[in-house]
Amino acid sequence: MDSVKSFKGYGKVDELEAVAFRRKTRKRLIVISVSVVLLLVLIVGVVAGTVAHNKNKRDSGDASATSTAAAIKSICSVTQYPNSCVSSLESSNSSNPEKIFQFSLSVVMDSLEKLSTLPDEYMNRTEDPLVKEALRVCGAVLNDAVDSLNDTISLMQDGGRKLVSRTDDLRTWLSTVVTDQETCFDALDEVNATFVEEVKLLMKNSTEFASNSLAIVSKILGAIGDFKIPIHRRFVGAAGSGFPTWVAAGDRRLLQESAPKPDLTVAADGSGDVKSLKEAVDRIPKKSKTRFVIYVKKGEYVENVELDKSYWNLMIYGDGKDATIISGSKNFVDGTPTFSTATFAIAGRGFIARDIGFRNTAGAAKHQAVALRSGSDQSVFYRCSFDAFQDTLPLQPPVLPRMRHNRDDRLHLWQLGSCVPKLQHHAEQPLSNQPWKDFSVTVIMQSSIGGFLDPKGWISWVSNVDPPSSILYAEYQNTGPGASTSNRVTWAGYKPTLTADQASKYNVESFIEGSSWLPATAVTFDST
Protein backbone atom coordinates (compact mmCIF):
# COMPACT_ATOMS: atom_id res chain seq x y z
CA MET A 1 0.00 0.00 0.00
CA ASP A 2 1.51 3.35 -1.02
CA SER A 3 1.76 5.97 1.63
CA VAL A 4 -0.37 9.05 1.20
CA LYS A 5 1.19 12.04 -0.52
CA SER A 6 -1.43 14.66 0.18
CA PHE A 7 -0.14 15.40 3.67
CA LYS A 8 3.38 16.54 4.41
CA GLY A 9 4.37 13.77 6.85
CA TYR A 10 7.40 13.83 9.09
CA GLY A 11 9.87 13.66 6.21
CA LYS A 12 13.29 12.01 6.27
CA VAL A 13 14.84 11.92 9.71
CA ASP A 14 18.51 12.85 9.88
CA GLU A 15 20.41 10.07 11.70
CA LEU A 16 22.74 12.47 13.53
CA GLU A 17 19.71 14.44 14.65
CA ALA A 18 18.06 11.24 15.86
CA VAL A 19 21.15 10.29 17.88
CA ALA A 20 21.27 13.77 19.36
CA PHE A 21 17.59 13.53 20.22
CA ARG A 22 18.08 10.24 22.08
CA ARG A 23 21.08 11.63 23.98
CA LYS A 24 19.19 14.79 24.94
CA THR A 25 16.17 12.74 25.95
CA ARG A 26 18.21 10.64 28.40
CA LYS A 27 19.67 13.78 29.94
CA ARG A 28 16.26 15.42 30.08
CA LEU A 29 14.78 12.51 32.03
CA ILE A 30 17.32 13.09 34.79
CA VAL A 31 17.26 16.87 34.65
CA ILE A 32 13.47 17.15 34.53
CA SER A 33 13.00 14.88 37.56
CA VAL A 34 15.28 17.11 39.64
CA SER A 35 14.21 20.39 38.06
CA VAL A 36 10.49 19.93 38.66
CA VAL A 37 11.07 19.49 42.39
CA LEU A 38 13.43 22.46 42.55
CA LEU A 39 11.10 24.54 40.43
CA LEU A 40 8.15 23.77 42.67
CA VAL A 41 10.20 24.69 45.73
CA LEU A 42 11.16 27.96 44.08
CA ILE A 43 7.65 28.84 42.96
CA VAL A 44 6.02 27.88 46.24
CA GLY A 45 8.76 29.76 48.07
CA VAL A 46 8.15 32.86 45.98
CA VAL A 47 4.40 32.60 46.56
CA ALA A 48 4.79 31.99 50.29
CA GLY A 49 7.20 34.89 50.61
CA THR A 50 4.86 37.19 48.77
CA VAL A 51 1.88 36.20 50.89
CA ALA A 52 3.87 36.67 54.11
CA HIS A 53 5.10 40.06 52.92
CA ASN A 54 1.58 41.20 52.13
CA LYS A 55 -0.38 39.52 54.89
CA ASN A 56 -1.23 42.85 56.48
CA LYS A 57 -2.21 44.49 53.23
CA ARG A 58 -5.75 44.68 51.98
CA ASP A 59 -4.93 43.05 48.63
CA SER A 60 -2.60 40.11 49.15
CA GLY A 61 -2.52 39.51 45.36
CA ASP A 62 -0.24 42.52 44.80
CA ALA A 63 3.30 41.23 44.57
CA SER A 64 6.51 43.15 44.31
CA ALA A 65 7.96 43.59 40.84
CA THR A 66 10.93 41.45 41.81
CA SER A 67 8.94 38.48 43.11
CA THR A 68 6.54 38.70 40.15
CA ALA A 69 9.36 38.64 37.63
CA ALA A 70 11.04 35.74 39.44
CA ALA A 71 7.82 33.70 39.54
CA ILE A 72 7.04 34.34 35.87
CA LYS A 73 10.56 33.41 34.80
CA SER A 74 10.44 30.21 36.84
CA ILE A 75 7.04 29.20 35.49
CA CYS A 76 7.94 30.04 31.90
CA SER A 77 11.07 27.90 32.09
CA VAL A 78 8.93 24.77 31.63
CA THR A 79 7.34 26.00 28.40
CA GLN A 80 8.42 25.35 24.84
CA TYR A 81 8.54 29.09 24.12
CA PRO A 82 9.95 30.72 27.29
CA ASN A 83 10.75 34.08 25.67
CA SER A 84 7.22 34.66 24.38
CA CYS A 85 5.90 33.33 27.68
CA VAL A 86 7.81 35.86 29.78
CA SER A 87 7.07 38.81 27.48
CA SER A 88 3.34 38.00 27.35
CA LEU A 89 2.95 37.51 31.11
CA GLU A 90 5.17 40.25 32.51
CA SER A 91 2.17 42.55 33.07
CA SER A 92 0.26 39.98 35.14
CA ASN A 93 1.29 41.71 38.41
CA SER A 94 1.15 38.48 40.41
CA SER A 95 3.50 35.78 41.64
CA ASN A 96 0.68 33.30 42.32
CA PRO A 97 0.85 30.37 39.83
CA GLU A 98 -2.95 30.24 39.56
CA LYS A 99 -3.24 33.91 38.73
CA ILE A 100 -0.36 33.77 36.28
CA PHE A 101 -2.03 30.83 34.56
CA GLN A 102 -5.35 32.68 34.49
CA PHE A 103 -3.64 35.71 32.97
CA SER A 104 -2.04 33.46 30.34
CA LEU A 105 -5.53 32.39 29.26
CA SER A 106 -6.55 35.99 28.65
CA VAL A 107 -3.41 36.41 26.54
CA VAL A 108 -4.39 33.39 24.43
CA MET A 109 -7.96 34.66 24.05
CA ASP A 110 -6.75 38.07 22.90
CA SER A 111 -4.50 36.47 20.27
CA LEU A 112 -7.31 34.20 19.01
CA GLU A 113 -9.78 37.06 18.76
CA LYS A 114 -7.34 38.88 16.48
CA LEU A 115 -7.57 35.90 14.10
CA SER A 116 -11.37 35.91 13.85
CA THR A 117 -11.43 37.51 10.38
CA LEU A 118 -8.36 35.70 9.04
CA PRO A 119 -10.15 32.91 7.07
CA ASP A 120 -12.51 35.37 5.38
CA GLU A 121 -9.64 37.66 4.42
CA TYR A 122 -7.83 34.82 2.66
CA MET A 123 -11.09 33.55 1.14
CA ASN A 124 -11.17 36.75 -0.90
CA ARG A 125 -7.68 36.06 -2.23
CA THR A 126 -8.39 32.73 -3.93
CA GLU A 127 -10.78 31.23 -6.45
CA ASP A 128 -9.69 27.64 -5.80
CA PRO A 129 -12.74 25.82 -4.35
CA LEU A 130 -10.56 23.32 -2.47
CA VAL A 131 -8.58 26.11 -0.82
CA LYS A 132 -11.82 27.90 0.05
CA GLU A 133 -13.09 24.74 1.73
CA ALA A 134 -9.82 24.41 3.65
CA LEU A 135 -10.27 28.00 4.85
CA ARG A 136 -13.78 27.13 5.98
CA VAL A 137 -12.22 24.33 8.03
CA CYS A 138 -9.86 26.93 9.53
CA GLY A 139 -12.81 29.13 10.45
CA ALA A 140 -14.63 26.23 12.10
CA VAL A 141 -11.69 24.97 14.15
CA LEU A 142 -10.66 28.46 15.25
CA ASN A 143 -14.20 28.98 16.53
CA ASP A 144 -13.90 25.66 18.35
CA ALA A 145 -10.61 26.84 19.84
CA VAL A 146 -12.33 29.93 21.25
CA ASP A 147 -15.12 27.76 22.69
CA SER A 148 -12.62 25.44 24.37
CA LEU A 149 -10.74 28.39 25.78
CA ASN A 150 -13.99 29.81 27.14
CA ASP A 151 -14.58 26.47 28.89
CA THR A 152 -11.15 26.80 30.47
CA ILE A 153 -11.75 30.39 31.56
CA SER A 154 -15.17 29.50 32.99
CA LEU A 155 -13.62 26.82 35.17
CA MET A 156 -11.04 29.31 36.39
CA GLN A 157 -13.69 31.78 37.56
CA ASP A 158 -14.07 29.80 40.80
CA GLY A 159 -10.36 30.18 41.43
CA GLY A 160 -8.21 27.57 43.15
CA ARG A 161 -11.09 25.60 44.64
CA LYS A 162 -11.48 23.58 41.44
CA LEU A 163 -8.13 24.12 39.80
CA VAL A 164 -5.97 21.23 41.00
CA SER A 165 -8.79 18.68 41.04
CA ARG A 166 -9.60 19.45 37.41
CA THR A 167 -6.21 19.91 35.81
CA ASP A 168 -7.00 17.08 33.38
CA ASP A 169 -10.02 19.03 32.12
CA LEU A 170 -7.89 22.12 31.72
CA ARG A 171 -5.28 20.11 29.81
CA THR A 172 -7.95 18.64 27.57
CA TRP A 173 -9.43 21.99 26.61
CA LEU A 174 -6.06 23.66 26.12
CA SER A 175 -4.86 20.70 24.05
CA THR A 176 -7.90 21.31 21.88
CA VAL A 177 -6.95 24.97 21.45
CA VAL A 178 -3.46 23.95 20.28
CA THR A 179 -4.63 21.11 18.06
CA ASP A 180 -7.43 23.13 16.46
CA GLN A 181 -4.81 25.56 15.20
CA GLU A 182 -2.68 22.69 13.90
CA THR A 183 -5.77 21.34 12.12
CA CYS A 184 -6.05 24.66 10.29
CA PHE A 185 -2.43 24.38 9.15
CA ASP A 186 -2.94 20.76 8.12
CA ALA A 187 -6.02 21.63 6.05
CA LEU A 188 -4.09 24.32 4.18
CA ASP A 189 -1.03 22.08 3.77
CA GLU A 190 -3.23 19.32 2.39
CA VAL A 191 -4.47 21.48 -0.50
CA ASN A 192 -1.05 23.07 -1.09
CA ALA A 193 -2.30 26.57 -0.30
CA THR A 194 0.40 29.05 -1.35
CA PHE A 195 -0.09 31.20 1.72
CA VAL A 196 0.16 28.51 4.42
CA GLU A 197 3.51 29.78 5.74
CA GLU A 198 2.09 33.30 5.82
CA VAL A 199 -0.86 32.06 7.89
CA LYS A 200 1.47 30.21 10.26
CA LEU A 201 3.41 33.42 10.81
CA LEU A 202 0.22 35.37 11.54
CA MET A 203 -0.85 32.66 14.00
CA LYS A 204 2.58 32.38 15.63
CA ASN A 205 1.53 34.24 18.78
CA SER A 206 -1.70 32.31 19.31
CA THR A 207 -0.03 28.92 18.83
CA GLU A 208 2.89 29.74 21.13
CA PHE A 209 0.72 31.32 23.82
CA ALA A 210 -1.67 28.35 23.84
CA SER A 211 1.26 25.93 24.04
CA ASN A 212 2.67 27.92 26.96
CA SER A 213 -0.62 27.80 28.88
CA LEU A 214 -0.83 24.04 28.28
CA ALA A 215 2.70 23.57 29.62
CA ILE A 216 1.92 25.63 32.73
CA VAL A 217 -1.18 23.63 33.60
CA SER A 218 0.52 20.31 32.82
CA LYS A 219 3.85 20.79 34.54
CA ILE A 220 3.30 23.37 37.25
CA LEU A 221 -0.30 23.15 38.41
CA GLY A 222 -0.44 19.40 37.76
CA ALA A 223 2.80 18.84 39.67
CA ILE A 224 1.55 20.97 42.56
CA GLY A 225 -1.43 18.60 42.75
CA ASP A 226 0.86 15.56 42.62
CA PHE A 227 2.94 16.95 45.47
CA LYS A 228 -0.27 17.76 47.41
CA ILE A 229 0.70 21.40 47.84
CA PRO A 230 -2.56 23.02 48.96
CA ILE A 231 -4.26 25.39 46.54
CA HIS A 232 -7.74 25.22 48.05
CA ARG A 233 -8.32 21.79 46.53
CA ARG A 234 -11.88 20.51 46.21
CA PHE A 235 -12.88 17.13 44.84
CA VAL A 236 -15.90 16.29 42.74
CA GLY A 237 -17.90 13.76 44.73
CA ALA A 238 -20.14 10.89 43.75
CA ALA A 239 -23.70 10.23 44.81
CA GLY A 240 -24.64 7.11 46.75
CA SER A 241 -25.95 5.51 43.57
CA GLY A 242 -22.44 5.38 42.15
CA PHE A 243 -23.06 8.19 39.68
CA PRO A 244 -21.13 11.47 39.80
CA THR A 245 -23.01 14.17 41.70
CA TRP A 246 -23.36 16.26 38.56
CA VAL A 247 -25.57 13.64 36.88
CA ALA A 248 -29.25 14.41 37.49
CA ALA A 249 -31.42 11.65 38.98
CA GLY A 250 -33.70 11.65 35.94
CA ASP A 251 -30.72 11.27 33.63
CA ARG A 252 -29.47 8.30 35.64
CA ARG A 253 -32.80 6.50 35.29
CA LEU A 254 -32.92 7.26 31.58
CA LEU A 255 -29.43 5.97 30.89
CA GLN A 256 -29.97 2.74 32.83
CA GLU A 257 -32.82 1.70 30.56
CA SER A 258 -31.91 -0.86 27.89
CA ALA A 259 -34.04 0.94 25.30
CA PRO A 260 -34.58 4.55 26.37
CA LYS A 261 -37.83 6.19 25.36
CA PRO A 262 -36.91 8.39 22.39
CA ASP A 263 -37.73 12.05 22.06
CA LEU A 264 -37.55 11.59 18.30
CA THR A 265 -37.67 8.56 15.99
CA VAL A 266 -35.98 8.41 12.59
CA ALA A 267 -37.32 5.81 10.16
CA ALA A 268 -36.53 5.68 6.45
CA ASP A 269 -39.82 3.85 5.80
CA GLY A 270 -41.88 6.73 7.18
CA SER A 271 -42.95 4.98 10.38
CA GLY A 272 -41.18 7.52 12.62
CA ASP A 273 -41.28 11.24 13.25
CA VAL A 274 -38.86 12.01 10.41
CA LYS A 275 -37.29 10.05 7.55
CA SER A 276 -33.71 11.29 7.73
CA LEU A 277 -31.10 12.33 10.26
CA LYS A 278 -30.81 15.73 8.62
CA GLU A 279 -34.48 16.32 9.37
CA ALA A 280 -33.88 15.18 12.94
CA VAL A 281 -31.02 17.66 13.40
CA ASP A 282 -33.43 20.56 12.88
CA ARG A 283 -35.46 19.35 15.88
CA ILE A 284 -32.60 18.83 18.34
CA PRO A 285 -32.49 21.47 21.09
CA LYS A 286 -29.19 23.32 21.39
CA LYS A 287 -27.12 23.42 24.58
CA SER A 288 -29.56 21.08 26.27
CA LYS A 289 -28.79 20.34 29.91
CA THR A 290 -30.94 17.21 29.78
CA ARG A 291 -30.50 14.15 27.63
CA PHE A 292 -32.20 14.26 24.21
CA VAL A 293 -32.68 10.76 22.79
CA ILE A 294 -33.03 9.85 19.11
CA TYR A 295 -33.92 6.33 17.99
CA VAL A 296 -32.83 5.47 14.44
CA LYS A 297 -34.67 2.44 13.09
CA LYS A 298 -32.89 -0.19 11.03
CA GLY A 299 -31.93 0.78 7.52
CA GLU A 300 -29.13 2.52 5.61
CA TYR A 301 -29.19 6.29 5.82
CA VAL A 302 -27.02 7.75 3.05
CA GLU A 303 -26.28 11.25 4.27
CA ASN A 304 -23.58 13.35 5.89
CA VAL A 305 -24.41 14.62 9.36
CA GLU A 306 -22.53 17.37 11.17
CA LEU A 307 -23.42 18.41 14.71
CA ASP A 308 -21.50 21.40 16.05
CA LYS A 309 -20.54 22.25 19.64
CA SER A 310 -23.99 23.61 20.44
CA TYR A 311 -25.53 20.11 20.51
CA TRP A 312 -25.11 18.91 24.10
CA ASN A 313 -26.16 15.66 25.80
CA LEU A 314 -27.42 13.97 22.66
CA MET A 315 -27.94 10.20 22.50
CA ILE A 316 -28.51 8.31 19.26
CA TYR A 317 -29.21 4.59 19.27
CA GLY A 318 -30.19 2.10 16.59
CA ASP A 319 -31.16 -1.54 16.09
CA GLY A 320 -27.59 -2.83 15.87
CA LYS A 321 -24.30 -1.87 14.27
CA ASP A 322 -25.10 -4.00 11.23
CA ALA A 323 -28.76 -3.00 11.08
CA THR A 324 -28.72 0.78 11.47
CA ILE A 325 -26.10 2.25 9.14
CA ILE A 326 -25.19 5.89 8.50
CA SER A 327 -23.25 5.96 5.24
CA GLY A 328 -21.43 8.54 3.12
CA SER A 329 -18.72 8.71 0.47
CA LYS A 330 -17.04 12.13 0.63
CA ASN A 331 -13.28 11.90 0.11
CA PHE A 332 -10.12 13.87 -0.51
CA VAL A 333 -9.49 12.79 -4.10
CA ASP A 334 -12.86 14.12 -5.23
CA GLY A 335 -12.14 17.53 -3.75
CA THR A 336 -13.07 17.56 -0.06
CA PRO A 337 -10.51 18.33 2.69
CA THR A 338 -10.07 15.37 5.03
CA PHE A 339 -11.68 17.21 7.95
CA SER A 340 -14.88 17.67 5.94
CA THR A 341 -15.16 14.12 4.56
CA ALA A 342 -16.72 12.71 7.74
CA THR A 343 -19.97 10.81 7.27
CA PHE A 344 -20.88 11.70 10.85
CA ALA A 345 -19.27 14.52 12.85
CA ILE A 346 -20.08 15.50 16.42
CA ALA A 347 -18.51 18.21 18.56
CA GLY A 348 -21.02 18.82 21.38
CA ARG A 349 -20.27 17.52 24.86
CA GLY A 350 -21.78 14.36 26.34
CA PHE A 351 -22.60 12.53 23.09
CA ILE A 352 -23.62 8.84 23.23
CA ALA A 353 -24.00 6.50 20.26
CA ARG A 354 -25.15 2.91 20.68
CA ASP A 355 -25.89 0.07 18.26
CA ILE A 356 -25.10 2.07 15.11
CA GLY A 357 -22.68 1.58 12.21
CA PHE A 358 -20.79 4.53 10.66
CA ARG A 359 -19.43 4.07 7.14
CA ASN A 360 -17.53 5.87 4.43
CA THR A 361 -17.71 3.87 1.22
CA ALA A 362 -15.34 6.00 -0.89
CA GLY A 363 -12.81 3.17 -1.28
CA ALA A 364 -9.03 2.93 -1.02
CA ALA A 365 -8.37 4.76 -4.29
CA LYS A 366 -10.00 7.89 -2.90
CA HIS A 367 -7.45 8.18 -0.05
CA GLN A 368 -8.68 10.09 3.02
CA ALA A 369 -12.35 9.35 3.70
CA VAL A 370 -13.55 9.67 7.29
CA ALA A 371 -16.35 7.54 8.74
CA LEU A 372 -16.64 9.36 12.08
CA ARG A 373 -15.08 12.53 13.46
CA SER A 374 -15.71 13.26 17.12
CA GLY A 375 -14.61 16.25 19.14
CA SER A 376 -17.15 15.55 21.87
CA ASP A 377 -15.93 15.66 25.46
CA GLN A 378 -17.08 12.71 27.60
CA SER A 379 -18.51 10.90 24.58
CA VAL A 380 -19.30 7.19 24.41
CA PHE A 381 -19.58 4.87 21.42
CA TYR A 382 -21.02 1.54 22.57
CA ARG A 383 -21.58 -1.49 20.32
CA CYS A 384 -20.84 0.65 17.26
CA SER A 385 -18.85 -0.07 14.11
CA PHE A 386 -16.67 2.24 12.01
CA ASP A 387 -15.96 1.20 8.43
CA ALA A 388 -13.76 3.03 5.90
CA PHE A 389 -10.42 2.57 4.15
CA GLN A 390 -8.25 5.48 5.31
CA ASP A 391 -8.55 8.00 8.15
CA THR A 392 -11.59 6.11 9.41
CA LEU A 393 -11.37 7.70 12.86
CA PRO A 394 -9.18 10.81 12.79
CA LEU A 395 -8.00 12.13 16.13
CA GLN A 396 -9.84 15.31 17.05
CA PRO A 397 -9.64 16.50 20.65
CA PRO A 398 -11.13 16.58 23.18
CA VAL A 399 -12.47 13.10 22.52
CA LEU A 400 -9.08 11.87 23.75
CA PRO A 401 -7.78 13.86 26.65
CA ARG A 402 -4.01 13.73 26.56
CA MET A 403 -2.25 15.41 23.69
CA ARG A 404 1.40 15.78 22.79
CA HIS A 405 2.84 18.61 20.74
CA ASN A 406 6.43 18.28 21.95
CA ARG A 407 8.58 15.72 23.75
CA ASP A 408 6.83 16.20 27.06
CA ASP A 409 3.19 16.26 25.98
CA ARG A 410 2.07 13.21 24.02
CA LEU A 411 -0.78 13.04 21.54
CA HIS A 412 -2.60 9.71 21.93
CA LEU A 413 -4.89 7.40 20.08
CA TRP A 414 -6.27 4.72 22.37
CA GLN A 415 -8.24 1.62 21.44
CA LEU A 416 -9.43 -0.78 24.13
CA GLY A 417 -11.63 -3.84 24.10
CA SER A 418 -12.47 -3.60 20.41
CA CYS A 419 -12.91 -6.06 17.59
CA VAL A 420 -11.06 -5.39 14.33
CA PRO A 421 -13.25 -7.25 11.80
CA LYS A 422 -12.51 -8.25 8.25
CA LEU A 423 -13.15 -5.52 5.71
CA GLN A 424 -15.17 -6.59 2.70
CA HIS A 425 -14.14 -6.01 -0.94
CA HIS A 426 -10.58 -5.05 -0.06
CA ALA A 427 -7.95 -6.18 -2.58
CA GLU A 428 -4.99 -5.58 -0.26
CA GLN A 429 -4.24 -6.68 3.26
CA PRO A 430 -5.07 -3.71 5.48
CA LEU A 431 -2.86 -2.30 8.22
CA SER A 432 -3.77 -0.84 11.59
CA ASN A 433 -2.48 2.71 11.43
CA GLN A 434 0.06 5.23 10.17
CA PRO A 435 2.09 7.54 12.42
CA TRP A 436 1.66 11.02 11.00
CA LYS A 437 2.84 13.51 13.61
CA ASP A 438 6.35 13.36 15.08
CA PHE A 439 5.19 12.61 18.63
CA SER A 440 2.07 10.57 17.94
CA VAL A 441 1.08 7.70 20.23
CA THR A 442 -1.23 4.79 19.45
CA VAL A 443 -1.96 1.90 21.80
CA ILE A 444 -4.16 -1.03 20.78
CA MET A 445 -4.88 -3.23 23.77
CA GLN A 446 -7.13 -6.10 24.79
CA SER A 447 -8.76 -6.17 21.35
CA SER A 448 -9.63 -8.99 18.95
CA ILE A 449 -7.77 -8.74 15.63
CA GLY A 450 -8.76 -10.81 12.61
CA GLY A 451 -6.32 -12.84 10.51
CA PHE A 452 -6.83 -10.63 7.46
CA LEU A 453 -4.38 -8.01 8.83
CA ASP A 454 -1.03 -7.62 7.10
CA PRO A 455 1.50 -9.21 9.50
CA LYS A 456 3.54 -5.98 9.44
CA GLY A 457 0.64 -4.37 11.27
CA TRP A 458 1.63 -0.77 10.56
CA ILE A 459 2.78 1.38 7.65
CA SER A 460 5.01 4.45 7.47
CA TRP A 461 3.41 7.73 6.48
CA VAL A 462 6.34 8.41 4.15
CA SER A 463 7.21 5.43 1.92
CA ASN A 464 10.43 3.62 2.85
CA VAL A 465 11.16 6.02 5.72
CA ASP A 466 10.81 4.78 9.29
CA PRO A 467 8.92 7.11 11.61
CA PRO A 468 11.08 9.05 14.10
CA SER A 469 11.91 7.38 17.39
CA SER A 470 9.83 10.02 19.18
CA ILE A 471 6.58 8.17 18.36
CA LEU A 472 5.11 5.42 20.54
CA TYR A 473 3.03 2.71 18.86
CA ALA A 474 2.25 -0.29 21.03
CA GLU A 475 0.11 -3.41 21.40
CA TYR A 476 -0.96 -5.18 24.59
CA GLN A 477 -2.86 -8.39 25.32
CA ASN A 478 -4.66 -8.53 21.97
CA THR A 479 -6.23 -11.77 20.78
CA GLY A 480 -7.25 -13.37 17.51
CA PRO A 481 -5.37 -14.71 14.48
CA GLY A 482 -4.03 -11.25 13.59
CA ALA A 483 -2.70 -10.44 17.06
CA SER A 484 0.75 -12.01 16.68
CA THR A 485 3.51 -9.37 16.72
CA SER A 486 6.33 -11.66 15.54
CA ASN A 487 6.40 -10.15 12.03
CA ARG A 488 5.52 -6.58 12.93
CA VAL A 489 7.51 -3.52 11.84
CA THR A 490 10.83 -2.91 13.60
CA TRP A 491 10.58 0.85 14.09
CA ALA A 492 12.43 2.35 17.04
CA GLY A 493 9.16 3.79 18.30
CA TYR A 494 7.13 0.55 18.01
CA LYS A 495 6.64 -1.66 21.07
CA PRO A 496 5.25 -5.15 20.34
CA THR A 497 4.20 -5.38 23.98
CA LEU A 498 4.03 -3.32 27.14
CA THR A 499 4.60 -4.19 30.76
CA ALA A 500 1.53 -4.28 32.99
CA ASP A 501 2.68 -1.03 34.60
CA GLN A 502 3.10 0.69 31.23
CA ALA A 503 -0.27 -0.56 30.03
CA SER A 504 -1.97 0.66 33.21
CA LYS A 505 -1.42 4.23 32.02
CA TYR A 506 -3.91 3.54 29.23
CA ASN A 507 -6.69 1.81 31.15
CA VAL A 508 -10.14 3.32 31.57
CA GLU A 509 -9.41 4.85 34.96
CA SER A 510 -5.93 6.25 34.35
CA PHE A 511 -6.44 7.48 30.82
CA ILE A 512 -9.96 8.90 30.74
CA GLU A 513 -10.92 8.94 34.43
CA GLY A 514 -13.81 6.68 33.44
CA SER A 515 -15.17 6.05 36.92
CA SER A 516 -16.12 9.71 37.26
CA TRP A 517 -18.47 9.76 34.27
CA LEU A 518 -18.88 6.39 32.52
CA PRO A 519 -21.31 4.95 35.13
CA ALA A 520 -23.85 7.55 34.05
CA THR A 521 -23.86 6.10 30.53
CA ALA A 522 -24.88 2.57 31.63
CA VAL A 523 -22.02 1.22 29.48
CA THR A 524 -20.21 -1.85 30.80
CA PHE A 525 -16.52 -1.20 31.41
CA ASP A 526 -13.51 -2.53 33.31
CA SER A 527 -11.67 0.35 34.97
CA THR A 528 -8.41 -1.61 35.12
Task: Give an overview in words.
GO terms for molecular function: enzyme inhibitor activity; pectinesterase activity. It comes from Sesamum angustifolium. The protein has 528 residues and is of the alpha/beta class. Among the domains are: 28-226, Invertase/pectin methylesterase inhibitor family protein (Butyryl-CoA Dehydrogenase, subunit A, domain 3); 243-395, Pectate Lyase C-like (3 Solenoid), CATH 2.160.20.10. 36% of the residues lie in helices and 12% in strands. It contains 14 helices and 18 strands. The chain has helices at 15-53, 65-76, 82-89, 97-113, 118-123, 129-156, 160-163, 167-190, 196-202, 204-226, 249-256, 277-281, 500-504, 508-512; strands spanning 264-266, 292-296, 299-302, 305-307, 314-317, 324-328, 344-346, 352-354, 357-360, 372-374, 380-382, 385-387, 411-416, 419-420, 440-445, 448-449, 472-476, 494-495. It has a 5-stranded parallel beta sheet, with no helix packed on it. Helix 3 crosses helix 10 (204-226). The longest helix is centred in the N-terminal third of the chain and has 39 residues, at 15-53. The chain is globular, with a radius of gyration of 24 Å. Residues 1-19, 28-40, 49-63, 226-248 and 396-430 have low confidence and may be disordered.
Name of the level-1 CATH class of the domain at 28-226: Mainly Alpha
Q: Would you give the CATH topology of the domain at 28-226?
A: Butyryl-CoA Dehydrogenase, subunit A, domain 3
Radius of gyration, in angstroms, nearest whole number: 24 Å
Mean pLDDT: 75
Query: Per CATH, which architecture of the domain at 28-226?
Result: Up-down Bundle
What overall geometry do the principal axes of the alpha carbons give?
globular
Q: Which sequence of strands runs across the widest sheet?
A: 1-2-5-8-11
Query: What is the makeup of the main sheet?
Result: 5 strands, parallel
Low-confidence stretches: 1-19, 28-40, 49-63, 226-248, 396-430
Q: At the fourth CATH level, what is the homologous superfamily of the domain at 28-226?
A: Invertase/pectin methylesterase inhibitor family protein
The portion of residues assigned to helices is 25-40%
Derived from helix and strand composition plus strand pairing, the structural class reads alpha/beta
Taken as a percent bin, the fraction of beta residues is 5-15%
- How far apart the termini lie comes to 36 Å
Count of alpha and pi helical runs: 14
Number-wise, the strands total: 18
Transmembrane segments: 29-52
Pfam family, one: Pectinesterase
Keywords: Aspartyl esterase, Cell wall biogenesis/degradation, Hydrolase, Membrane, Transmembrane, Transmembrane helix
Catalytic activity: [(1->4)-alpha-D-galacturonosyl methyl ester](n) + n H2O = [(1->4)-alpha-D-galacturonosyl](n) + n methanol + n H(+)
